């Protein structure tokens, strides 16, 4: 009887130990399942985050590629405009150069040569006499005459004036530089003209005249 009781006690202890071990194993299994579940959740979140990052990067790459393409197209348009402006500038430069050359040619054509001078001089025949007389002087000019010109008129003769100069050109030249002309008479002799004048010299030329210049 005592042996049976002792056996039952040992069996109970073994069962308790096994129950405790099973409980520990069950708890460890639950913990392991929890760890695995947490790990799976974490991995899922990490994977989802990585996928989101990849999508964002792809979107950024697409956006940057689009910007680069737009800038490239804009650069091409600008280069085309620059080339068009350069071509236009070259055309304008060539036109301006051509105009300058044409103008220079026309200027050379307009320059009087000896033949033109001779032809011009032939309009006035040898021995022909021309006269220019000035009318009465306005009252408005009397003050200027007294201020800038000599008091009395003088008879002055000019020699060796080119025959191709017209009487009007000679008159204007003398009247604006030498003195106020009252009367002028020209006579041609071959290549030259002799010009006799009655004029009031400027005060500057009056001083030169008085010094015998």
TrEMBL record:
Specify the superkingdom.
Eukaryota
- The Basic residues compositionally biased stretches are 106-121
Q: Where is this region: Disordered?
A: 99-123
* Protein name (Swiss-Prot/TrEMBL): Uncharacterized protein
Its lineage opens with: Eukaryota, Fungi, Fungi incertae sedis, Mucoromycota, Glomeromycotina
